[in-house]
Specification:
single chain; 157 residues; mainly alpha; Arc Repressor Mutant, subunit A; 2 domains; two-stranded antiparallel ribbon; 61% helix
Amino acid sequence: MRCNEHPPYLIAHLAKYRSLMPSIALICHCVETIDSGQLMETTVSVPAALQAAAWCDYLRAHAIRIYGATGPGPALEAAHILLQKIKSGQIINDMTVRDINRPKWSGLSDPETVKAGLECLQAHSWLMVETIRTGGRTSDLIRLHPEIHCQNCQKGT
């Protein structure tokens, strides 16, 4: 869970498996003990623990598929991160896309993710990316929606 392989909402879901696996193991152990007609042992059996671990693997695979289908996706996640940066004043009007790529903020470490997030924000009228032609390379400038810019100015950021 610490490798950041999955989005935060899926990591939060999988964190619950720490208690899920022992709970399932205890249930499997009780069913196994009752089914065999033996007296209840105080220690959960190894087969019950293995069965619970297999259940957790099965449930994990389904959770990844479900969250993958219904999760926000990388573009929307990047858009949320960019929006937080705008609200905190770390992204300002007339900043270049290159300036946003340079710090390699968490969740915005590669240019394609930043581009997808900016496109999402542009589609929802939070900002506009304007390409400026200079003598050499073109430069992509961020133009924040005027109302957002004024809100930041009023807050002193």
